[in-house]
Design goal:
This protein is an alpha+beta fold and 368 residues long. It has nine helices and 18 strands. Strand 4 and strand 5 form a beta hairpin.
Length: 368
């Protein structure tokens, strides 16, 4: 019988499931919200387990009566055509962040339809997924990765629908992403649903007022939704992303409620984007985990990437990569020009992360 890896709490739930499926190692997660009023797994975590069950063959999950203990035995990642109704408690980005980690290692191409909240809080919205997350995926080898947005749905009512399509890989090639380059353009999407048509122009004007002092080439697409395409709840959002001379993409998105002023949404998002640029990495903070995962699974060659400050999520992901795959990253701190005008305290260095890939091969795909 395979030895189970044991974890406690819910903080690394998705990480554990992803790495369990890729490594084939079964896991036990205990004490899931055992001290809270609502014990055990949430509705969106149960929904994720159902999605994984639809995408795999042979996966077994066992919950105790209170839902505070999960035994997860991974099966084979099959992929194929799947349609899934997601929980309205979290955005679709919660599920997509799992799918982009698994897509490369499936037997069949992913053709996944997800329905639920396309714009919410705590996870990337569909515009970030479409324009930024999939750009990373394509650079990592998923050349046919596409996300089609059929409907947008803001929290809490949802009503959105997206289709994720991706090829699989036999092996992962090593990467060398060390030069962030110079920012040559900024693009974005301002979206609103069931709100005044004047909302987006106010967001765009305020954002451009800040960004045009940084770079002249700024274009933000105005998408005002109404009717069947507008989902079940009002809301508005702004997604901004940069493109550099070395094909580096950095992003930031923010979703507001109906009561949030458009100008406040624009200022918050633009300032976060400029902070991401100033951090000096080749990958923004919300996608560090994705690149590090693919680096660990490459062939037996050294991969390197330049990152800004590591997020707590990334730090825990590095620990789990070592636990599941025995992979250890070499971290080198490299200073940037601290005398640069406008340089902020605490953003004076970048991290060069390097590792030797474990030589992972997609045995699922080899059987096709």
């Amino acid at each position: 019988m395979a030895k189970y890896l044991t974890f406690k709490g819910d903080g690394e739930f998705r990480q554990i499931l992803i790495l369990s499926l890729l490594s084939g190692k079964p896991v036990v997660i205990e004490d899931i919200r055992h001290l809270e009023d609502e014990l055990g797994l949430t509705d969106y975590e149960v929904s994720l387990l159902k999605l994984i069950d639809e995408l795999t063959n042979g996966t077994k999950t066992k919950l105790n009566e209170t839902g505070t203990r999960l035994v997860f035995s991974p099966g084979f990642i099959i992929g194929g055509e799947v349609s899934h109704e997601c929980s309205l408690s979290v955005p679709l980005g919660y599920y997509m962040e799992v799918l982009v980690c698994l897509a490369a290692f499936s037997k069949k191409k992913f053709n996944i339809t997800l329905r639920g909240v396309t714009h919410g809080h705590g996870h990337p919205n569909v515009d970030t997924l479409k324009h930024v997350t999939l750009s990373y995926c394509k650079k990592l080898g998923l050349h046919s990765a596409e996300l089609t947005i059929n409907k947008r749905g803001y929290s809490p009512g949802g009503g959105g629908e997206v289709v994720f399509f991706s090829n699989s890989l036999k092996i992962v090639k090593p990467i060398q992403w060390l030069d962030p380059g110079k920012i040559k353009r900024i693009r974005g999407v301002a979206s609103c649903a069931r709100m005044s048509p004047a909302t987006n122009p106010r967001v765009i004007d305020k954002a451009r007022g800040v960004l045009n002092d940084f770079i002249p080439d700024v274009y933000i697409y105005n998408e005002h939704l109404k009717g069947a395409q507008s989902g079940n709840s009002p809301g508005h959002s702004l997604t901004l992303y940069t493109e550099s001379t070395t094909d580096v993409t950095l992003c930031c998105d923010n979703t507001a409620t109906q009561q949030t002023l458009p100008e406040d949404l624009a200022l918050t998002t633009t300032h976060h984007l400029l902070d991401a640029v100033h951090a000096g990495g080749c990958v923004d903070s919300s996608h560090q985990y994705l690149v590090l995962l693919y680096m660990a699974l490459t062939q037996h060659h050294v991969s390197s990437v330049r990152l800004g400050p590591l997020t707590p999520y990334t730090i825990s992901f590095l620990r789990n990569l070592k636990l599941f795959f025995g992979i250890v990253f070499k971290i080198k701190v490299e200073k940037i020009n601290v005398d640069e005008p406008g340089n902020k305290k605490g953003l004076g260095s970048t991290l060069v992360m390097s590792c030797l890939g474990i030589g992972f091969e997609n045995m699922n795909r080899s059987m096709t």
